[in-house]
Amino acid sequence: MFTGLVSNIGEVASFDGDKLTIKAKIDCKIGDSIAINGVCLTVVVVSNNGFVVDVSNETKKTIAKNSFKGEVHIEQAMKLNDRLDGHIVQGHIDCVGIVKHIIKQPKQTRLKIALDKEFLKFVINKGSIAIDGISLTISYIDENSSSFELVIVPHTWANTIFSTYKIGDEVNIETDMFARYIYNLFKKTDKNALNWDKVDKIMATY
Q: Domain with 116 in it: what CATH number?
């Protein structure tokens, strides 16, 4: 599990299609789970200036094509006694989004991202979403264009790779875990047997 708050910006040293080598100053060990641009991977080699992770064929099918190029977001798995400053992120990418517009304003930057309509049902206004591993709050949903907007504050813009985004770029999207679970729960349960009191109890167990 992760929180969606990156601890480091690393640099891709090489990627041969199976093994990804990251250059970064980070304290990790073999077997650690680590998120690279939101993708949960396992450390298999540790060196003085970085680490190596394996990338499965299944992972490569679901992620943005430029996930492992240039600078990347790095987040180590959370500990049970850590503060949860973002939201619960699994590191399992749901789909790839496309940057549709970037609007820079005096104290914020607005990003509009389009995604497959199949996943729009998990996108909730004022809810959480992870973009390339970063925990963000959805500010607006446009169902007609199957897209949503995010407001990026200056600190986040300056300390992530968001500032390198261009219109048309692909990004990794992980929708909110609770939205997915609740949707599937409603889908598989008799509507008359489930109510919001029961949903509240389910949410309270997490």
A: 2.40.30.20
Q: What angle do CA 193, 196, 202 make, to 5 degrees?
A: 85
41 bridge partner residues: 34
Rg (C-alpha) for the chain, rounded Å, is: 18
DSSP secondary structure, 135-183, as one string = EEEEEEEETTTTEEEEEE-HHHHHTSGGGG--TT-EEEEEE-HHHHHHH
User: Which tens digit of pLDDT belongs to each residue from 93-147?
Assistant: 999 999 999 999 999 999 999 999 999 999 989 999 999 999 999 999 999 999 9
Residue with tokens 């049970």: 80
DSSP 36: E
- Distances, alpha carbon 55 to alpha carbons 15, 63, 90, 199, in Å: 9, 11, 16, 36
Q: Is the pTM of this model over 0.85?
A: yes
105 and 164 part of one domain: yes
